[in-house]
């Protein structure tokens, strides 16, 4: 071990020991809380021990402060209660599709390079770009350094954010970020595709050749970095991600949704029909997604759909993002159908309460139709001899 590294490690241990009385330790064993100055000294020592220069750490942490607005956002994150049709109609608008196609043309050479090097279809990258920041127009106005200091110092999830703060110091050392002026999302995401510092360090690509990775100001950097990150999430070159389909009257509805083990070809044999007529991926796994039940929009999700769930866990968000990517790649607007009436917020919470009382794992009683609630609804529908499409209706609620 080099002398400088031994000294830095010793300094780290000394500082952490000195602040133990004032600081706390989270459930994960991460030091958090306590006096802010002592906390920042510990962060600096850890960064230096990991190879950063003391000067970079000083520059990155100078004038850092706790942002109470960040804590407020963290304690009261927005609850996602729109239906798929409501959310996708708003986010996959005609104007956004037109702007997306213009961006695909404007940065055509960059998108071609991204696809050649990482295998990711241009429409997939452009859709994330659109959904995250409206092509860079809305990137957030929270000071990134202060947001990460706040969340790393706070003892709710320090194990997630302290590494991001250390990565930010590396970005400062590389000259890729000004800690005093850089702004972004409240949780520390940066730039036109909203990525955290640790991921930018790992997957950042200098798309414009200026020697830096600056996702906030450089669209080529954002496009290339997003492509590399999406490849890392498991995207397979040349394969589809989402395909709209039409349905026959009768299907094994209990096999719809995730993890049924069906191939796309199995669904085709049962009468599920791709609107674009393309059945050449019949050997791939295909999950039949019915965001608003069997009478609403219907999609086959292929293995590449998994990258959307890695990016964002919200089913409605991810399905809308994947749908936007198909539109930017030439698909038609989906058929809305005539979905059965769903539940309002009060009814959804009542449903979740009843399902939980029956022993189902629905998570929090929050009024959100998440994966656990959908799964419970589907199982209860099947028990009652109803089409098990996972869409809760007033009739099902009354029957419970």
Shape: globular
How many beta-strand segments? 8
Uncertain parts? 1-21
Rg, nearest Å: 24 Å
Sheet with the most strands?
4 strands, antiparallel
Multimer state: single chain
Distance between the termini: 66 Å
Strand order of the largest sheet: 6-5-8-7
Q: Tell me the structural class.
A: mainly alpha
Give the overall average pLDDT. Answer: 92
H and E order:
HEEHHHHHHHEHHEHHEHEEEHHHHH
Fraction of residues in H or I helices: 40-55%
Number of helices: 18
Strand content: 5-15%
Defining traits:
8 strands; two-stranded antiparallel ribbon; single chain; mainly alpha; disordered N terminus; 400 residues
Characterization of this structure:
By secondary structure, the protein is mainly α. The chain is built from 18 helices and 8 strands. The strands form 3 sheets. Strands 6-5-8-7 form a 4-stranded antiparallel β-sheet. Strand 1 and strand 2 (31-32) form a beta hairpin. Helix 8 packs across helix 12. The longest helix has 17 residues, at 158-174. The chain is globular.
Write the layout of secondary structure elements.
Elements: H1 3-18, E1 24-25, E2 31-32, H2 36-49, H3 54-61, H4 68-75, H5 84-91, H6 94-106, H7 108-118, H8 122-133, E3 142-143, H9 144-153, H10 158-174, E4 183-184, H11 197-203, H12 219-232, E5 242-246, H13 264-269, E6 273-274, E7 287-289, E8 299-301, H14 306-311, H15 315-328, H16 345-357, H17 371-383, H18 394-399
Antiparallel strand pairs: 1-2, 3-4, 5-6, 5-8, 7-8
């Amino acid at each position: 071990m080099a002398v400088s590294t031994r000294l830095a490690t010793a300094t780290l241990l000394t500082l952490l020991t000195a602040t133990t009385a004032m600081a706390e330790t989270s459930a994960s064993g991460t030091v958090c809380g306590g006096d802010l100055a002592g906390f920042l000294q510990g962060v600096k020592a850890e960064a230096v021990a990991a190879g950063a220069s003391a000067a970079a750490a000083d520059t990155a942490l100078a004038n850092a402060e706790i942002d109470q607005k960040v804590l407020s956002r963290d304690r009261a994150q927005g609850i996602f209660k729109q239906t798929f049709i409501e959310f996708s109609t708003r986010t996959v608008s005609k104007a956004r599709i037109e702007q997306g196609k213009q961006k695909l043309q404007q940065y055509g050479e960059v998108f071609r390079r991204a696809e050649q090097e990482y295998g990711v279809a241009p429409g997939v990258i452009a859709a994330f770009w659109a959904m995250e920041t409206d092509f860079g127009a809305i990137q957030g106005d929270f000071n990134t350094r202060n947001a990460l200091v706040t969340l790393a110092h706070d003892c709710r999830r320090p194990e997630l954010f302290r590494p991001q703060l250390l990565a930010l110091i590396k970005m400062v050392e590389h000259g890729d970020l000004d800690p005093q002026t850089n702004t972004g999302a409240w949780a520390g995401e940066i730039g036109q595709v909203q990525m955290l510092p640790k991921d930018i360090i790992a997957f950042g690509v200098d798309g414009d050749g200026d020697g830096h990775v600056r996702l906030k100001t450089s669209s080529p950097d954002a496009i290339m970095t997003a492509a590399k990150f999406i490849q890392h999430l498991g995207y397979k070159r040349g394969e589809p991600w989402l395909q709209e389909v039409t349905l026959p009257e009768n299907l094994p509805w209990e096999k719809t949704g995730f993890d049924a083990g069906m191939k796309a070809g199995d669904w085709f044999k049962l009468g599920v029909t791709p609107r674009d007529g393309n059945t050449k991926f019949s050997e791939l796994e295909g999950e039949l997604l019915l965001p608003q039940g069997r009478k609403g929009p219907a999609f086959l999700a292929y293995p590449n759909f998994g990258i959307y769930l890695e990016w964002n866990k919200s089913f409605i968000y991810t399905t809308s993002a994947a749908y936007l990517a198909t539109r930017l790649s030439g698909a038609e607007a989906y058929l809305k159908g005539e979905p059965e009436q769903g539940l309002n917020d009060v009814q959804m919470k009542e449903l979740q309460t009843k399902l939980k009382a029956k022993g189902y794992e629905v998570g929090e009683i929050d009024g959100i139709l998440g994966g656990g609630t959908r799964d419970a609804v589907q199982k209860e529908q099947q028990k009652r001899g109803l089409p098990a499409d996972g869409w809760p209706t007033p009739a099902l609620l009354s029957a419970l």
